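Protocol step 4 of 5: obtain the predicted structure for the target chain.
Materials: sequence only (see below). No template structures provided, no constraints applied. The aim of this step is simply to have a reference model before the mutagenesis design in step 5. Sequence pasted as it appears in the construct record:
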Amino acid sequence: RCSNRLSYGPKKTTRGFLIGLQYYIFVPEISTANTVFMQKIIFKPYRHLNIKNIIFDLGGVIINIDYHLTIEAFKKLGFNNFDTVFTQASQLGIFDQLDKGLVSHEEFRNYIRELSGIPLNNNQIDEAWNAMLLDFPVERLSLLEKIRDQYRTFLLSNTNQMHCEVYTKDLQATYGVKDLSHFFEKAYLSHEIGMRKPDREAFMLILNENNLKPEETLFIDDTEQHIEGAKKVGINTYYLRLKEGEAIEKLFVTE
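Step 4 output (structure tokens):
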């Protein structure tokens, strides 16, 4: 590994992540004689805690997301009260079932047609439902790779197969990364594990399966009820205030 290396242009890291056409200064290690010192990445708000494990949310924390875009997309299709059945804070049971992998794509689409009373075609429904998904900022993904080398990192996301297919294709096309598991020791997606936040069982699954101590674990999410769910099992939490301009790349620093 190189020290104090300045690179420009497309660059693959040691794990193969395509960084992109931007300047990055890599200082992975500083060697003096026979001693190698690794720069420590810390979570600035909790620098006093002995954090060894970090669980990240996906939407809003890693991928930019805007729920309002999906609401507006359905309104344009004539489903004017979509915001009464789906928001970030609350939603009808059908959306929970979709997140848990309990209903098929076609069952979900048929339910949307029933709710709206409009004979929408599959493409219309899919495009409106996926409209909330935006981009993966390159600096955020680069940070995740660096954090992964110093902490045990995990992903816990309330998501669904329809969304997963879209953002996975984005990762592959934009960064040449197979899927989200590249950035974590393990990714826990609700539609694959059959559990959702803020349910206790979702957090306990990660703790128990990976032998994590809750007092050594940090959970970062932008939804308050999910934060409360993690607190109930003793996990340290940080509520990411997106409306105040917070982002994980602003909260991790090197020392």
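Step 4 remarks: Residues 1-36 have pLDDT under 50 and may be disordered. The first strand starts at residue 5 and ends at 7.
Proceed to step 5.
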